[in-house]
Each structure stands twice: as C-alpha cells, then as structure tokens.
Amino acid sequence: MDLTKRIRKHFDDSAQTKLQARDLLAQPIADAAQAMMECLMNDSKILACGNGGSAADAQHFAAELINRFEVERPALAAIALTTDSSVLTSIANDYDFSQVFSRQVRGLGMAGDMLLAISTSGNSINVVEAIHAAHERDMRVIALTGREGGTMGEILGAGDIHICVNVESTARIQEVHLLALHCLCDAVDHLLLGGE
Q1: Is 95 within 8 Å of 103 (Cβ atoms)?
Q2: Which CATH number fits domain 3-193: 3.40.50.300, 1.20.1510.10, 3.40.50.10490, 3.10.410.10?
Q3: Full-prediction pTM beyond 0.70?
Q4: Per-residue pLDDT averaged across 9-16, rounded?
C-alpha cells in the first residue's frame, strides 16, 4: 500500500468510527454536558485527569472552559490535574505514581465538584484511584474510556456518566474523545448562552 492510500485509510477509519459512535454517545454526552452545567452554575468546578494523550485532552478541555471555546463567555472553573510538575513529581516520589491524581482530588475536590476521568483503556491505575477519591468527596464522575470501559466502567456509581468508545484502536478512541470533548464544550456554551 502506498503512503497516500494508507493515509486515506486513516481518514476513512476515523470517519467511520465517529459515525458509528454518534448514535451511541450522543445521549451520554448530552447528559454529561447537563451535569457539567449544573456543577458550574452551582459555583463548583471540574477537575480533569488522564495520562499521555489523555493528559493532553484533560488540559485541552480545561483550557476551553477557563478561556473560551467558540463564543465569548465568562470563564468557567476547570483544573487539569496533569500540569503541575512539582505536585506530580512530589506525590510520585513520596507516595506512588498511582496517587498523583487521587491526592490532588482529595486536596482540591469538594462535594458538588466533578471529575472528568480520561483513559483509552479504562484501566489506568492513577485515574481509577482518582475516581475512588472523587466518590469519597461526593463528586460525580464523567468517564471517557475506550474498548469495553475497563476497570473505570466497573467502578462508576449510579450518578456517574460513562462515555465509552467501544473500539480497539487507541488512535480512533482518542479521536472520538477529542470530538466528545468539543461537543461537551459546545453544549455547555449552548446551555449557558442559548442560541443556535
């Protein structure tokens, strides 16, 4: 297969995955946006975490809320737990890498806040521990996972929302995660500001 055909196949696979996910994920994404809006309107905040590409997604999402997405609006309270190298390395050094997010959730999270937990496998130990910490703090969880949801899917509570991209390819999962995050940002803005 020549390189251009290979690249076209990636485009085709990505588009097909998104279209297949659309009907399955539209309702949980809408539910998550509504829950996020209620959280933010109650002067609470959203904490976000993940590893690798999912860390970048957590940071991207927090930036879209703090700054803006596509329209002008007030800043919304969101914190990516992936960005403070001193906090991350001190927790990993003094305790264990599995605690880098959960310790922050216990320190920063309050009842009424939300945790956006992102893992393509659904099995990232430090994200799983963050979910446990969020539940201890009476925080709802929005989980973005892939494949069959992994451990994260198993530990979610009744008030939590699971957005699971049920495919095997990490790249395709991450592409749908990014689209889901953009949908969340757009929906929050729509709920806040109205309009088309």
Answers
A1: yes
A2: 3.40.50.10490
A3: yes
A4: 96
